[in-house]
Write a structure and sequence with these properties.
- The protein has 3 domains: 120 residues, no CATH class; 116 residues, Immunoglobulin-like; 118 residues, Sandwich (Immunoglobulin-like), CATH 2.60.40.
- The protein is built from 8 helices and 21 strands.
- The strands form 4 sheets. Strands 1, 15, 16, 18, 19 and 21 form a 6-stranded antiparallel beta sheet that branches. A 5-stranded antiparallel beta sheet has the order 2-3-5-9-8, with no helix packed on it.
- Helix 1 packs across helix 8 and helix 5 runs antiparallel to helix 7.
- The protein is globular.
Length: 389
């Protein structure tokens, strides 16, 4: 009997995952997970969450009886919690989700994205270690841009000489040009180096790059590395056409100059222009051919009303890339001509005030709701129905 119960439970969870993650676009799955992580989890009763097993379950284990998950209030509460979160995300299209946590769409400051910070024992004394922090001012560089590397040294003995050298290395080997670091002040605690990629033969640069940094404090030599990417952009967002209302959507057409034909993905954040408050995470995808093309982002009225903002707006944090094709290991990123673009807003009365409905999502939600409330026999019936479909 015990084996049959756990086999049934295993089948049940497989079906939940299969229905929930049923092919409906990889981007949908990622967006659901992101939104679930961003949304505060509903509180469940203390008697449920604080106890892994109820009194009846504990006594069953003490008596050597098997644990039946279909009678577990903890299990049912967890399933209902998943259903609550899924119901919230399914109210909006995948490509137009309101921002519930501003930190999730915060702009990364220069030198923040890929900073490496390491302690080095000072004459064998780790308690008073010298710390070396190194970072590039961005993670993604494009052909012809300058690469800036910053190094900070802390914990070095006073009046001890500190010097920094380095070089860049690609998957094809070290570049024959050194990184020249200059101190930013007289304390010799921060150093900067700028490297102009225009002086390098293009074939020496590869998508995966590393800055190798060597720090000398007195007689002690220390080494650290910082990784970054360097690409020729597959396409560039050069502007936006005037926004317009179509049914329940604010349509924002992006003008794209395409270097490499392929299937493209774009993501961006829509802010309120006056307050810079992040409103909606937008995304879309589609094929683009070499030359000039358009790829539109659609902000749904339900997502716009979440923050009650009729505009005007700013479009920023635009991320564009061409998906890796057969034989390619990596996606090819695109660039944008400006950090942000202005977007006109319209009164809500101009939109078709339609509630977004995803029939497939509703089926999944119904299944989760039943999972959190039914007994073993009903679960078996649902599993059989799902398998038949």
């Amino acid at each position: 009997m015990r084996r049959s119960v756990w086999i049934t439970l295993g089948l049940m969870l497989v079906v939940v995952l299969a229905l929930w993650l049923r092919p409906n676009g990889d981007s949908e799955e990622r967006e659901i997970v992101q939104t679930v992580n961003d949304k505060p989890k509903p509180k469940t009763p203390r008697s449920v969450t604080d106890k892994k097993l109820t009194t009846n379950e504990k006594s069953s284990e003490e008596n050597g009886e098997e644990f039946n998950p279909y009678e577990s209030e903890v299990f049912k509460a967890q399933i209902q919690q998943v259903a609550d979160l899924f119901e919230e995300t399914s109210r909006y299209p995948v490509g137009s989700r309101p921002v519930t946590n501003p930190d999730s769409v915060r702009e990364v400051a220069p030198f923040e994205h890929n900073e490496v910070d390491l302690p080095f024992a000072n004459d064998g004394d780790l308690a008073n270690a010298i710390r070396i922090s190194a970072a590039t001012d961005t993670f993604q560089y494009y052909q012809g841009q300058k690469i800036t590397v910053r190094v900070r040294v802390s914990g070095a003995p006073i009046d001890t000489f500190t010097g920094v050298t380095g070089n860049l290395s690609s998957t094809r080997g070290d570049l024959p040009y050194p990184l020249v670091f200059q101190p930013t002040d007289a304390t010799l605690t921060e150093f900067l180096a700028e490297f102009d990629t225009q002086i390098v033969q293009p074939e020496l640069m590869t998508p995966e790059m590393v800055a190798v940094v060597k720090v000398k404090v007195g007689d002690q030599d220390m080494l650290t590395t910082v990784s970054f990417r360097y690409d020729q952009p597959s396409a560039q967002v050069i502007g936006t056409l005037p926004s317009r209302v179509e049914g329940p959507n604010l349509v924002i057409p992006l003008q794209v100059s395409v270097s490499q034909t392929g299937y493209y993905f774009v993501r961006a954040v829509l802010d309120e222009a006056g307050t810079s408050k992040p409103l909606i995470e937008l995304q879309n995808e589609g094929p683009l051919t070499a030359g000039n093309g358009l790829l539109a982002l659609n902000a749904h009225i339900a997502a716009l009303k979440y923050h009650q903002s009729e505009g005007p707006y700013k479009l920023r944090s635009i991320k564009l890339h061409r998906g890796a094709e057969l034989g390619e290991a990596l996606d090819v990123p695109g660039s944008t001509m400006q950090k942000q673009f202005s977007v006109q807003g319209f009164p809500f009365s101009m939109y078709s005030d339609e509630e977004f409905v995803d029939e497939l999502a509703q089926e999944r939600l119904e299944f989760l709701r039943q999972m959190g409330a039914v007994d073993e026999e009903q679960v078996q019936e649902r599993i059989s129905e799902a398998q038949d479909q």
